[in-house]
Amino acid sequence: MKNTLFCAALSVTTVVTALSGCNENTPSTAKPSTAKPSIVKKVESDYETVLTVLTEDFIVPAYSNFEAKTAQLSQSIKTQCKVDANNSDENNITIDWQSLQQNWKAVSFAWQDISWLQIGPISSSNRLHRVQYWPDANNAVERGTQQLLSSDSELNLTSLAKMNVGAQGIPALERLIFQASLHQQTDAKALCTSLVLVSENLAGIASAVSTQWSASDNGFAQATIGGLAPFTNQKDALEELVSNVAAYISRIKDNKIIYPLSIQAPGIPMLGEAPFADSSPAHIQHNVAAIRAVLGTSDKHGLCYLLVQNQQQALASQLKNNLETLDELANQLQTSYASALADEEQRLVLTNLSNSLTALQTLLSESIVPALSLNLGFNSLDGD
Asked: Between residues 111 and 20, which one has the greater pLDDT?
């Protein structure tokens, strides 16, 4: 499924045939194979243990939570945008923006818990970008929301799905819900039409992805745990998951920290994730928690479990210490990213967080991946 960045240690089984004498009636004897089926089975069992915990205790619940939060936001928007039966004036709608903002944050945080994973159902039908098109170097979200609000034609879910991906997901809803200038310049009917459509579209995507993961018949969870198609085996499934989180470490470091941090205060807040909601610190905290869940916070799951099973206790301890440091630094961030980027002490926290992410990349690439004989996806450890 992937180009390989690392080469696994080659497993070679040597069969030596010893011939006794030259008489054709003298039976030949072969040295027994050195392969140990019990060891192979144990390795496969270890993979299945890790995959089961990751899938059943983290991935499936995370997608289920994302589905629930998007449904709640969609329903809240429909309720607030519903025209009173005693008042047919569609422009006379009062929207509780603060309430919708809290619902949006719940959706965004739920997405941050699982946005590291870019394989499976989320990768089909351009769903990944339709959920969150970010970083947005060409202002696709701004253009998309303007197109929504200024459209003269009747919009529906079908037509929305064909529009610019910037108009379809969490960033579009962020602008519609948090950008005060839009509330002042746009009539309530246009805002409600866009809000209802985008939130319903997002909820539909979340529901489809969650259902496809948890389906009892040919669900992607079954494929992941069993190493079934599209994976070649359980090792391949694990390598894909680790490759995804390794690449995500680079995206957090570069896109969410280094670029907004810039070279001096006050940084560039608009380059951060969710600048209108100003919720990037909370996003980073959710991201770090997700990384810890995948790589392992104890010797009983994730790569920590595999390291212990492979007699690599020292590496397991190093990994846990690194992850604990990341968590401590992330939790030192202020609520407002704009404020954090302008504060020298907070900028130091962000710099240390970036350095810790680099240290984690190095630990993975130079020590853990070789120790576990894993093959990670092309450039997954350098972010390219």
From this structure: 111
Q: How many domains does the chain have?
A: 2
Instruction: State whether 127 and 175 are in the same domain.
Output: yes
One domain for residues 206 and 257? no
The answer as to whether 42 is a domain residue is no
- Confidence at residue 299, expressed as pLDDT on a 0 to 100 scale: 81
Q: Which two tokens stand for residue 299?
A: 């010797």
Is residue 175's pLDDT more than 70? Answer: yes
Within 10 Å of residue 97's Cβ, how many Cβ atoms? Answer: 15
Query: What is the rounded distance in angstroms from the CA atom of residue 303 to the CA atom of residue 313?
Result: 11
Determine contact, residues 242/374, Cβ cutoff 8 Å. Answer: yes
Q: What residue numbers bound the domain in which 183 lies?
A: 52-220
Taking the C-alpha atoms of residue 132 and residue 89, their distance in angstroms, rounded to an integer, is 34
Element of type H or E holding 285? helix 280-295
Q: What is the pLDDT of residues 33-58, one digit of tens each?
A: 444 555 555 667 899 999 999 999 99
Global pTM reads 0.87
**Confidence band, pLDDT 50/70/90 cuts, at residue 27:** very low
At 127, phi and psi to the nearest 5?
-65, -35
Backbone angles phi and psi of 361, in degrees to 5: -60, -45
Last residue of a domain, one of 173, 199, 220: 220
C-alpha–C-alpha distance, residues 70 and 131, integer Å:
11
DSSP line for 34-99: ---HHHHHHHHHHHHHHHHHHIIIIIHHHHHHHHHHHHHHHHHHHHHHPPPTT---TT-----HHH
pLDDT band at 154 (very low <50, low <70, confident <90, very high): confident
Considering the domain architecture, whether residues 137 and 244 belong to the same structural domain is answered as no
Strand, coil or helix: what is 27?
A: coil
157 contacts 200 by C-beta, under 8 angstroms:
yes
Distance (Å, whole) CA 320 – CA 297: 6
Residue after which a domain boundary falls, among 220, 255, 276: 220
